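Still learning. Any example?
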Amino acid sequence: MDLVEELRWSTYMKTRDRYKHGAATFLLHLYKSGDDALNAPFASQMEANLAMVRPRNGTSDEAMIYSLLPSYCEEPIEPLHWDLLTPQKILEPIWSWKDDFKKLSESRLSSYRAALHLLFKDFGKTDVWLKLSPTVNQVLNGWKRRRVRLQKKRGMSVEKGMAELPFKVYAELCKRIACDKLYGPFGWTYATMLWNLMGRSDNISHISVNHIKCKEDHLLIYYAQQKTDQDGKLSKYPRTIFANPLSPWTCAITALGVYLIVTNTRVGNSDGSLPLFHGSQDECARRFRVGLHAKAKEIASILEENGMTTQSVGTHSFRKGAATYASAGGTACPSSSAISLRAGWTQPGVEDTYRRYDSAGDEHVGRVLTGLPMNGEELAILPPIFMPETQEDEAFIDECCKSTMDVNQVNPGVARRCLASVVFHILKLREQLPPGHKLWADRTINNKQAMEKLRSLIFSGFQDNPIAMEANLCATGVPPHCALLRSMRIVKDQVAKLIPGVDEQLSQLPKLFRDALDEAIADGKIEGAPLTASNLERTVLRLLEESGLKDVPRLLQEGNTVRTRTPDRPTNLAAFGLQAHKTLPSDFYVPNMTLQKSWYHWMLGDAASGHRPWRLIQLCEVNDKKARERLRRFRKIMLAIQEY
């Protein structure tokens, strides 16, 4: 068993390919300088490779050396005399970088150091690297600090890597890409996957059709391997993708549906795999970048408004923008742990111990990333779902799925969910997508009668809708504030329906009062009693109760103003010639007293306790049953004396 050969596979292949450039740069410098540290047989092989005829597009010298390095050559030749290497020889190929601000980047220096470490590791010379690395690391760290000083002195940009995409720019890019006749279906799906999965381009390019499943109100996408999960331990934890019924352009399920319809016939690779995107990872990423830069130029003014340029937008901009939007796009963002797990970032010391994957947390992130309002009740909206009523409807939906997508390869649940989203947004798609778009070449999509029938079978709304409740549909990944906002909206709608009736009743109050006062003045009495302030107040309150405004008497007695849609309408005590008084205490009680004292309280009140005249106290103001009955008898006696 070749232990060194097995150790070579412990490094991620894509990372290994990237590090080859740094190792080739180092070896090429030794070859051109004639350094004795380069092994003679390896130098001869390098000379032969460099002399080979190269393709017309041009191949760098470093690329011609790739085939001599491990994982490219079955029996690689020992390239160096390891004991002759010194820190100075290792740093010579990049010595000119220290004065070049563009080359003196932290990522480039770190990549060069890691490339050399991998070269030593591939040939089992880790012990030699451990002797040389302290000095090399110290010099490279000094160069990094030099770059920072240059940034400070010259006022240069401190931003690193590609710029992050704001959600507004992302939405505009998706719309522009989707409307492209040829590039649109692929680019739109690729862009929405990058954003919604918060993924690296390598993961997006390697998505297999077999790794896309349907569950409840969302889709599941599995990663077989990630940069931070080389062993595939986290492959059992899927990423959730939700539909956006409010906007088709940021809806990954709609984009996926259009792509599956356009690429109806799917052809697997020779190894039996069934990739979602045709071509190798590099081909998919390159094809997307070319189209992305073309569309970025179309919105150059929008990019400038957001502090970006066309050159600062790349595949990594989607990942950075999605992570920023999910963590800082509102005041009710998902947890940082759920965001880190979705993005595939390691959390040393707490990962899989204190912070573990949970479907609810990832579902919350998925809902936010699809573009639904983060702080609104719409975050809890259900996706477009087919709701057939009869067996004929079910058969019709299945037939439409078979005619638009390759259901033998695509999961049937995924096909139905994607078709439902496309049909739900078909009107907006017809308005924006050009006539020559590939989507309109599908016979079913181009059949208006079929589209109308399918649209009539689709439901999308909230889970408190009777249709959703009957079908047991449940919205997943919904934070608590959405339920509260939904309840408040329902109450608001109910109040809005009551306002016209209240306004109508209030408009009738002046007529009721005029009729009652005219009758009282003509008779000299009001309801058979003398025309006094107390009797007048009692009549006013009764009229208010008869008009259906049962809370108005209480508000009048408390001296408040009834809020209506017409603020100029008088609705307080002063408007009726009455005066507001202090609210009765909860322990109010009519005590035993003489007739003289009773008459005093009846007419003037109790100055010591601040009570108003007891003739103005209504029974409804007294909470205790016994005290209310005692007040009722007291009023009966006093009214009889007053009338006498």
Notes: The chain is about 50% helix and 5% strand. The longest helix spans residues 480-523. The two ends are 122 Å apart (CA to CA).
